[in-house]
Amino acid sequence: MHEHIGIALRGEKVLSLRAEAAEDPSGPLIRQLAKDMLIAMKTHGGVGIAAPQIRVSKRVLIIHSKPNERYPDAPEMEPVIMVNPEIISYSECFDSMWEGCLSVPGLRGLVPRQTGVSVRYHDLTGKEQEACLQGFPARIFQHEFDHLEGILFPLRVADCSDIYSENEYRRRIQGLHD
Ligand code: K3U
Ligand code: ZN
């Protein structure tokens, strides 16, 4: 049984800071941080996580795309751990999707984002990697990258009336009744 790793909630200062670069992407501190993030992401049921969400202001994020209730067509991917990620380019197209966040419990917001991003990062061996992300993985990346910049999804919602409570979201968007 793992020690419980808590999630920082909106209003906590660590979520509004610009996170610091990891000096040694393959060192023991970053490896342990990545393990803790994986545990926290899995226990809390996220499809991604960023280090500030477990109260560590370092530039490390994980994306873990998998099909889910909301996005049944999302690709199934192994978790990808990115240290010191950078955005090389964005696609020109935008689309909007309903996002949630472990640090903003109970809310859903309709967020416009670019449909694709090319990114560069270090893996846990310290090697530089590049990836072109499209669709749901690109969305998760941009959401997690925002965490490293101190930005939470409600700031990205284009129209304030597109922020719903989780229950209202389920009723109105998913058409579920409980
Ligand atoms: O599993 C979640 C989910 C929510 C909405 C749609 C699909 C899945 C919980 S929220 C989540 O996984 C965040 C992770 C966070 F909080 F660490 F940032 C990632 C995310 C969900 C949806 C869109 C973009 C990013
Ligand atoms: Zn989030």
UniProtKB/TrEMBL annotation:
<dbReference type="GO" id="GO:0006412">
    <property type="term" value="P:translation"/>
</dbReference>
<keyword id="KW-0648">Protein biosynthesis</keyword>
<dbReference type="GO" id="GO:0042586">
    <property type="term" value="F:peptide deformylase activity"/>
</dbReference>
<feature type="active site">
    <location>
        <position position="144"/>
    </location>
</feature>
<dbReference type="InterPro" id="IPR036821">
    <property type="entry name" value="Peptide_deformylase_sf"/>
</dbReference>
<keyword id="KW-0408">Iron</keyword>
<protein>
    <recommendedName>
        <fullName>Peptide deformylase</fullName>
        <ecNumber>3.5.1.88</ecNumber>
    </recommendedName>
</protein>
<dbReference type="Pfam" id="PF01327">
    <property type="entry name" value="Pep_deformylase"/>
</dbReference>
<keyword id="KW-0479">Metal-binding</keyword>
<dbReference type="InterPro" id="IPR023635">
    <property type="entry name" value="Peptide_deformylase"/>
</dbReference>
<comment type="similarity">
    <text>Belongs to the polypeptide deformylase family.</text>
</comment>
<dbReference type="GO" id="GO:0046872">
    <property type="term" value="F:metal ion binding"/>
</dbReference>
<feature type="binding site">
    <location>
        <position position="101"/>
    </location>
    <ligand>
        <name>Fe cation</name>
    </ligand>
</feature>
<feature type="binding site">
    <location>
        <position position="143"/>
    </location>
    <ligand>
        <name>Fe cation</name>
    </ligand>
</feature>
<feature type="binding site">
    <location>
        <position position="147"/>
    </location>
    <ligand>
        <name>Fe cation</name>
    </ligand>
</feature>
<keyword id="KW-0378">Hydrolase</keyword>
<comment type="function">
    <text>Removes the formyl group from the N-terminal Met of newly synthesized proteins. Requires at least a dipeptide for an efficient rate of reaction. N-terminal L-methionine is a prerequisite for activity but the enzyme has broad specificity at other positions.</text>
</comment>
